Amino acid sequence: MNHLILIIKREYLAKVKNKSFILMTFLTPLIMVGLIALVTYLTSVNNEKVRTISVLDQAGFLKGALVSNDYTIYHYLESMDLETAKTLSSQNNSYGLLYIPNHPLDSVSKHIKFLSEEAPSLTFVTGLESKIEIRLKELKLEKAGVDLSKIKAAKTYVNLNQQSYEGVKTSKTGSFMKLGFGVLSGYLLFMFIIIYGNLIMRSVIEEKTSRIIEIIVSSVKPIQLMLGKIFGTSLAGITQFALWIVLLGLLMTAASFFLGVDFSATPQNDMMTEALNNQVVNSEIQGLINDLWGLPIFNLIIAFILFFAGGYLLYSSLYAAIGAAVDNETDTQQFILPVIMPLILAFYVGFFTVLEDPHGSISIVFSYIPFTSPIVMLMRIPFGVPLWEQLLSLTVLVITFVITVWVAAKIYRVGILMYGKKPSYRDLVKWLKY
Amino acid sequence: MKDLLEVLEVSKNFGDFQALSNVSIKVPKHSIFGLLGPNGAGKTTLIRIVNQITMPDSGQVFIDGAPLELHHVQQIGYLPEERGLYKSMKVGEQALYLAQLKGLSYNVAKNRLKHWFEKLEISHWWDKKTQELSKGMAQKIQFVVTVLHRPKLLIFDEPFSGFDPINANLIKDEILQLRDEGATVIFSTHRMESVEELCDHIALIHESKKILDGKLVDIKRQYKTNSFEVGLSTSNKNQLKRLIAERFDVTNADFKSLGDDLKLNVKLGSGDRSDDLLAFLSQNASINHYKELIPTASEIFIQTVKNNGL
To answer: Which of A158, A258, B86, B283 has a CA 20 to 30 Å removed from the CA of B270?
Structure first.
């Protein structure tokens, strides 16, 4: 036990003192913030460009329908033919020319054209189309003798007040939040396994290539060394993650404070705010807070810790075994693939199945299979999973973890003293019997 | 208890490959025991079994009369043939870490390390990174770490490889001193001159089997051929040679001498004694050189391996 602590301490310090580790810890948040700031800046530059759209409305249907704003100016051309309009708009450096020929209201929609030098962006076209559609629809309704003001008055927004049978309030935003939690925790686990699993593997290989391994295992049991390595590296990983989160937070605040980069000012956000503005916002925010408290937070935190730890330890023992089996990193490829496959599978199942139907049979099955359960179960839990299901899945995970560690330790014990030949899978099976 | 280590009928297979087959050895207390054998004979496997790195398929190992258990690793110091150090760690903290793994407390380890570093005049290495050390320097650190916890049993696998002659001598003297202070030493090596110089007992392992063991002097006595190397001054070499050959088995010998001697290896017959040869020679010539031919460890090694290899 004493040895284990010594090994954990050494592994932790060896990782934390490592220059590239320190560099990564401080550079990654800088690079991330830098990239986000750059993207935000570029988008804002892109948006600030004012587009002039020439409109040749021979039918006269769109009068007053296209209103200029800060980014788009609609320039109505009067009484000329299409050719003149084209020359004119290209002379004016217009972004494009919208052409509505003189056709009756019923058939005009098929003949509307947009002419431009370069292909217009998809969002722009969609926006323009919907504006024209609304206008034409209104005109058609008016023609049919419908009072538009009545329609406007009758417009209703519905926001379902969701509740479970037990009376717990849920809502759309609540679902979004659950989704967010699931995706975030799944993604975190995925990244954590890949980054620090690799680190463990490399540190095992390093011990082999530096030939210190035999000195160590003449003092401690190989399984102690392996577990010490896994725990030490994990602690270093947690340290790094925590620092990343803190640094990211600080940098984001600093950047938005000093450089005036508004991280929420992406065009998507603008559109969403616009959409939200049309609705009653106040009760939504109230609901958001309610939803936050309505999530099974205690359950989430405990489950996150347990499944995260279980899943990570399961995979990292496999990484340690791979490291022990080979002599150098280039030989690891053939063994890493089958380890990463279930991980990726879990991630996709999580994204495409769980978020669609958290209690469907595929979701349930994958939340029991130990190699996918940490990610899938973490994604399911926010949607409410009975405690016994969580416990069962956790038990399966722990049992598998114990078996995997046993197998990995066997491979480790033999592999660390094997040099030269790259082992095949058959060799690994043989090693289990040594 | 006379023997510190006893290995009893130990066998080990790796898949279809037999690494050790019913090997038994006894290592007497305070002796230097040479474990010899060609490459791949099973020496390292045997050493790893004693260190509990590998588990035997069958057989038993006793330390000081007690069956080998986990806590015994603290009484063994092992310097493997494949040895290295953590490259990015500092020399001092690394030595401290390895010593603590052997059960020493931080303070005891630190004091003893200071002492050893001063003794070997390497104190200024303490804060160096291991990757700055040369191979020989790293070997010194490894040696210190191996003996630091004052183990009863020291196991050295090719301890002198990587050392220059000066440092090899230094380490050899340290090993002898440790033996005098009460340690028992097992040596695994190919270097027969160091076996000759250091070992009291040897065991020879070949193709997973022990084919020879015992006290080195006993083995030499057993392997000697009753041959003598002689250098004689005479006026007629050929005649003298013929004369001796009538009585004894004679072959030409080659050694350095000052005069123009007749140099011969003479093998005694079963009934003859050394005195008979001397008397016979002194009657016929003047003797400048007379020496019993004792087989070297190297010759015994080669001869035994050849005989058993067929």
So the answer is: B283
